[in-house]
């Protein structure tokens, strides 16, 4: 099962776990209700996993995909990209990531604006709703390979915080106030 916890505000290496003292684990169902973040575990090494992935893509309308490998040897402008991924931002579309290899962290803001760190490993599929403040970093393994899914033409434009005037952020706040169970 996915691991998620509330983060400390330390400024040491972003690739470290950043647990509170004592550690405070987060509950996936509660985080889903508060933030709309969705999670599936899909085994890429069996037919059921592929069938589940195909069904999910059909159900959610994902009709474009690509693969991105993040490491010093595979990503042009690596240092610059890693910094931009870790800058708090939103997108106007969902961010969908299926982890194929390696590991890393997605950090999201909960309903009280606290950071929650989500550790992702192979088989994890994470959907961050449009308008949620988040960021990404590798862990100390410095490598991840992900499949990215999109609805329609790929859009990956980050809008750094503050981005309260962006329509996807306004819509996200409305959904958050009503509760994501309705969506």
Automatic annotation (TrEMBL):
Binding site for Fe(2+): 89, 91, 95, 134
Cofactor mode of binding and number, as noted: Binds either 1 Fe or Ni cation per monomer. Iron-binding promotes an acireductone dioxygenase reaction producing 2-keto-4-methylthiobutyrate, while nickel-binding promotes an acireductone dioxygenase reaction producing 3-(methylsulfanyl)propanoate.
Pathway membership, UniProt: Amino-acid biosynthesis; L-methionine biosynthesis via salvage pathway; L-methionine from S-methyl-5-thio-alpha-D-ribose 1-phosphate: step 5/6
Residue positions binding Ni(2+): 89, 91, 95, 134
Catalytic activity reported: 1,2-dihydroxy-5-(methylsulfanyl)pent-1-en-3-one + O2 = 3-(methylsulfanyl)propanoate + CO + formate + 2 H(+); 1,2-dihydroxy-5-(methylsulfanyl)pent-1-en-3-one + O2 = 4-methylsulfanyl-2-oxobutanoate + formate + 2 H(+)
Localization per Swiss-Prot or TrEMBL: Cell membrane; Cytoplasm; Nucleus
Family: Belongs to the acireductone dioxygenase (ARD) family.
Alphabetical list of HAMAP family matching this protein: Salvage_MtnD_euk
Protein name as catalogued: Acireductone dioxygenase
Species name: Meganyctiphanes norvegica
UniProt lineage: Eukaryota, Metazoa, Ecdysozoa, Arthropoda, Crustacea
